[in-house]
Amino acid sequence: MGDTNLDSTGEPAGNALTDQMKDASIKGEEEDIVNPWNVQSTSATGVDYDKLIKRFGSSKIDDLLLQRIEKVIRKPIHHMLKRGIFFSHRDMHHILDLVEQGKPFFLYTGRGPSSDAMHLGHLLPFIITKWLQDAFDVPAVIQLTDDEKFLWKDLKLEQVHQLSYENAKDIIACGLDINKTFIFSNLDYIGSSREFYANMKRIEKCVTFNQVKGIFGFGDSDCIGKISFPAIQAAPCFSNSFPHIFGSRTDIPALIPCGIDQDPYFRMTRDVAPRINYQKPALLHSIFFPALQGAQTKMSSSDPNSSIFLTDTPKQIKTKINKHAFSGGQSTVEEHRALGGNCDIDIAYQYLRYFMADDLRLEEIRKQYSSGEMLTGELKKILVDTIQPIIANHQTKRTQLDKETVMSFMTPRPLKFRF
Amino acid sequence: MGDTNLDSTGEPAGNALTDQMKDASIKGEEEDIVNPWNVQSTSATGVDYDKLIKRFGSSKIDDLLLQRIEKVIRKPIHHMLKRGIFFSHRDMHHILDLVEQGKPFFLYTGRGPSSDAMHLGHLLPFIITKWLQDAFDVPAVIQLTDDEKFLWKDLKLEQVHQLSYENAKDIIACGLDINKTFIFSNLDYIGSSREFYANMKRIEKCVTFNQVKGIFGFGDSDCIGKISFPAIQAAPCFSNSFPHIFGSRTDIPALIPCGIDQDPYFRMTRDVAPRINYQKPALLHSIFFPALQGAQTKMSSSDPNSSIFLTDTPKQIKTKINKHAFSGGQSTVEEHRALGGNCDIDIAYQYLRYFMADDLRLEEIRKQYSSGEMLTGELKKILVDTIQPIIANHQTKRTQLDKETVMSFMTPRPLKFRF
Questions:
Q1: Record: contact A224-B202, CB cut-off 8 A
Q2: pLDDT grade for B185, boundaries at 50, 70 and 90
């Protein structure tokens, strides 16, 4: 995460992009850089996501899709989907087709445990995974790529392995169902699953160095562990990698909620899948969670003021938001009253879009702030009041977790769900 | 094996050689090609091994070393060591130092199970491993690189996995001690050993694509599985890859008897070992087992007449030797009586050097054949009479093996030996 400017899933893990979009990604027309290791935007509103959809060849999550999801699950859609925080998808209609036919799918997401300092943005894939798990009543597998972090960072195996365990607690605290969720450290699980290892080899046989060079930007001086890593992030897409859950079935596709920066891994996987008679994974892509200082600045674990961490105290949260959250307001109260604030670049407002579920209240805030009726200090106070209980609640849940529960989540075992 | 001209261990597995010797290996001064995939010689006497020792930077197994081994084990040295069939080594003196100090080491060898048609030459590493195991009273680990064969050949995982099991029977039939030997299929063991997987990652982190390109000749269009495979052949060099045998100890070095063509893997491993605080493996290198048609011709599983297979009948053995074994004799009896035969290129004589343990008798045969006293037909008959019982005995032992015994050898478990 240290070298990531904006962060979605907390898993920068490859210097990515497919051949056709490589130039554009490095310094494209819109000058946004988006790959698993590096996300950079020159615009205060952040990355141009419509252009990204075109470049990546994914589909926009439109009203039609949202309505169809609501119809299938028979309850209101999550606000992060409604508000375009999850904005792009691949094959979500196919997943809904399966559900309508009474056929199964499963959720897959993950995290690279390079630090125990997880921040708010790191929770997004797990928050939406928990919601999808409840809404669709499906199992979820969550990969902790400690092996990847060992290869990429100056960390020992023992360190990344311990981080997996610490991060698992934060993930569990998001409310995932112990009867439907398997969280695994690669260092633990790969060394205990012939089936997972077999799928790694099947994938490795289908992907050349040329391809990972094109997709992830790997070079000749990268270590061979990095070069073959993409197969390890691809393997959980295939249901028979988890025989304790799915037996030897290969007909159950994965739905992957993740940051758009992780898409290169799964474009690769979708290319490989039909060649080995497996199902292509479907995806839900999220936009990038902005740093406190604004969408074009750097959010980093080494800068504690760049984000709100899951370990922050109420006071720290208040101070950070008041001192560091980039404001879209005007420079004087008079000007602000006259011209209004700019919600598109105001970080306090943007954070509320992620964490305030109440649509009506959020819209009210938007109107008041845009019109100048609400001042920056007032808006920031609302954010403080919203975030403090979320973090406090998270910390309570995390503290209450006993080792036994964490180990249960991390033990290969059958999961309960309807097929 | 299909693309190997001469074969030692039956494990061509990389297009090898280190940077400094790359040119020489591809078309060097002596025009011998020696790497894990391809061994070719233009000379009827085969590869120039003295030059190879220089190029590879290994040491010759000289009389001093042989005498020291005999002194340490207090019994006669194996004829394959005495006769220079194992001709080169790395750090064998260090292994003897350890033995003299009462410190442990272990044996490591292996095979790539690409075919169930194993031939005589494939047995060499296992014959010497069995002898070393008895002589030094040490454990042996034997890697079946079924994952490698899957990546390199047009074979399915299920096929190579089954071949592992079939090949294990031939290896066990060489007489390895069930209490001191662990034979493992990579597809089985890696997916059941966190420790082995952890060592794979430690090695992968230390080796770049540039390095495997230089050592093994990998290219951009090779699949990522091939590129990272060398770490998998390196991992068994480290004792803590086998916690059921060695616990977490990392101070026990491996001694690897193998064909000289496999050396590139272990040069790489010896380079990595000190960087991760592990012991460098020691090696004993064998020359290449010649094809029946002569040392410069191709021995191939697809040509049943190029070698004697472990499944051949006594009649097939007799016919093959009589019809196909390249003769160093003269074209007429009269000439032969006058000029004598050339033992250096005579395949019947060369095979006897591998398989006739009796030094005095072999020397007698050499004298008689060289002087012309013994005719080619007579020499061939001696070879037939030597090989037929070896193969018959092997077949009997293999047939007598029950599934339970094979599974015992292949089950991770403690091994009995003195520390």
A1: no
A2: very high
Given a cut of 50, whether residue B8 has pLDDT beyond it is no
Per-residue confidence at B13, pLDDT binned at 50, 70, 90?
A: very low
Looking at the fold, whether A37 and A186 belong to one and the same domain comes out as yes
Query: Mean pLDDT for chain B?
Result: 91
Looking at the domain assignment, is residue A6 inside a domain?
no
Whether A159 maps to a domain, the answer reads: yes
Q: Is A190 on the interface with B (CB under 8 A)?
A: yes
- On whether both A322 and A283 belong to a single domain, the answer is no
What's the CATH code of the domain at A394? 1.10.240.10
Whether B248 has its CB under 8 Å from any CB of chain A: the answer is no
| Chain B residues with beta carbon closer than 8 angstroms to that of A225 | 201, 204-205, 228, 231
Q: How many domains does chain B have?
A: 2
Check A191 against B191: CB less than 8 A apart: yes
Q: How confident is the model at residue B327 (pLDDT cuts 50, 70, 90)?
A: very high
Domain limits for position B21: 14-293
Mean pLDDT of successive 10-residue stretches along chain A, which has 419 residues: 35 37 42 73 79 94 98 97 97 98 97 90 97 97 98 96 97 98 98 97 98 95 98 98 97 97 97 98 95 78 85 97 96 96 97 97 98 97 98 97 97 88
pLDDT for position A69: 98
Residues B10-33 have a mean pLDDT of 43
- In terms of domains, do A24 and A127 share one? yes
A230 contacts B201? CB cut-off 8 A: no
B191·A187 Cβ contact <8 A:
no
Give the domain-ending residue among A232, A262, A293. A293
Residue A298 domain-assigned (yes or no): no
Of all residues in chain A, the one with the smallest CA distance to B193 is A191
pTM for the structure as a whole: 0.92
User: Which residues of chain B lie closer than 8 angstroms to A202, CB-CB?
Assistant: 157
B245 and B150 part of one domain? yes
Instruction: Name chain A contacts of B227, Cβ cutoff 8 Å.
Output: 209, 224, 227-228
**Does B21 lie in the same domain as B149?**
yes
Q: What is the mean pLDDT of residues B72-94?
A: 97
Does residue B232 form part of some domain?
Answer: yes
Q: What CATH number does the domain containing B88 carry?
A: 3.40.50.620
> Does A225 lie at the interface with B, CB-CB under 8 angstroms?
yes
Confidence (pLDDT) at B26: 42
Contact B187 A209 (CB under 8 A): no
B339 and B283 within one domain: no
How far A127 CA sits from the closest chain B CA (Å)? Answer: 30
Query: Quick one: B135 and B248 in the same domain?
Result: yes
Taking one residue from A and the other from B, the number of pairs with CB-CB distance under 8 angstroms is 124
pLDDT attached to residue B20: 38
Same domain? For A203 and A348 the reply is no
Q: What's the pLDDT score for residue A4?
A: 34
Sheet order of strands, B282-286 included: B59-60, B86-90, B282-286, B254-259, B106-111, B140-144, B181-185
pLDDT for the residue A413:
97
**Chain B residues within 8 A of A207 when measuring between CB atoms:** 223-224
